[in-house]
Amino acid sequence: MPEERCIVLLKDIFYKKRRYATVQTGQVQEDKPMAKEVPEGLMTKCPKCGTIAYAKELEKNLKVCQGCGHHFSMTAFERIAMLVDEGHFFEYDSGLLSADPLNFPDYMPKLEKDMEKSGLSEAVVTGEGTIKGYPAVIAVMDSRFRMGSMGSVVGEKIARAIEQAIEKQYPFILFSASGGARMQEGVLSLMQMAKTSAALAKLSAAGGLYISVMTNPTTGGVSASFASLGDYNFAEPGALIGFAGRRIIEQTIRQELPEDFQTAEFLLKKGQLDKVIPRKELRDTLAKILDMHTVRRAN
Amino acid sequence: MAGELPFEKPLLELNAKIEELRKFTEEKDIDFTDEIVKLEARAKSLAQEIYGNLTPWQRVQLARHPERPTTLDLINELFTDFIELHGDRLYGDDAAIVAGIAKFNGRPVTVMGHQKGRDTKENIARNFGMPHPEGYRKALRLMQQADKFNRPIICFINTPGAYPGKAAEERGQSEAIARNLREMASFGVPIICIVTGEGGSGGALALGVGNRLLMLENAFYSVISPEGAAALLWKDASQAQRAAETMKITARDLYELGVVDEIIPEPMGGAHRHLAQTAASLRDAIKGHLAELTDMSREELVADRYEKYKSIGRYAALTESI
Q: What does the similarity note say (chain B) (predicted)?
């Protein structure tokens, strides 16, 4: 099932990582016993249209419903596997772990639970890889980890990844999936918006390419920082994207919002996105863009 | 007086009593001088007790005080020759942000900030200091102008947050904030940001990427309002007082977290008690920081800002990372 495959992938990636790179990074995931996954059924029901599909079929279809095209959320490593050339991903900074700077009630246990649940050390995986032979620095957020929220580690990992992109003159591609800033780290989380945006300013000044792909959901402080700053701002179909939460807006303006408010399609219509790209076309489209930016091919 | 806060009540009552005795002394020709002296001493120590030990929630109340100096109040006190400039050239002019050019100590600067109203009518016109995208885009336009003409930028931050509305979302609230963060990081002029009241999350930060971040003593700065945090944490917005403590939002907290460079003292009882005194402290602080930044090259200023934000954050490194 998806999670099971994820585990296999994780190990694959770590194994290949050692062959691929000479620098040793932390083996956080390997040190920890893998979370016992709740065995999912053979079948998965689409929450949008109710179509029931074999989970394996769904996975083959990149977790897109055959019935209605609903895009199920992907884990960070599923996304990486879908995106990069097999065996060509080298993870950065997996050893950066969240501290508890505010001594916030219940923060640590929640982090531990999410680590176990997701097999990840934090809500973003960063690294470098090739897409159809084109090298890129890639950051992928995972909404299973604290709703993909950005605290010090997420901000730092993204900023470091951008610095790698500058140094190596690689394009930077980021897949956002986040509820926003991480409340448990207070104003330090807020400041990560400035940190990541400042790193992108540096990348831009160096002439670097940045492609932002917003996936479901991309909201709050993540939407209001790096996710909106791509040279190209893309989104997956149906993704929820916005600054303020729907309920807050409804309470503030005291009117009901349209059904499709804050969806990728809505924002496209309002001129806020370059393109909505179905998942199946994503790898090809990204490769085309990388090609047009005359990135030198690996090998 | 108007806008008295609950925690000030004992002091205000005591002051009223002293006033009463004074009147008595004058009118009835009974000498209460001894009592007055005693009570005045008590009022002094009570004031010290109350204002010297403000809780985070009390500071939030002071920061939101209806008579708290607004950006325009401070601009009038601190600058000369202020010319307000309007509009983002794209959509409209957002009254929740004021901006313009002025002189500080004889030196041309660009100055801007969130603008709250004094009364309900003005607050509605100012949207309670909650900007739409056009406000941030006006600010950006004028910062770009400052960058072009090599003028330092001074930003006053005082907002509950960016406006959570339908039109704001449609016009790209996220993009407007994000763009300001990136562009502010890249300007080659000194940028000094000062939280003067409420620092409400991303809507505050969009004017807040500077070489220096300063805070008035009773200002607060938070990723989420205490009410919002309480609603999320304990499903109860009335726990805001507790949230104000948990979230670490005071100037002292932010100084200790390495976010704020200097805390600017306020007069006893809060900035609104003595505008001129508040302005004098602000003037000294701005003067000092501006002097430090003046000799830096454009590249050095950008690098200085980058280092400032890059170093903010706390985490643990399990192993050596690249």
A: Belongs to the AccA family.
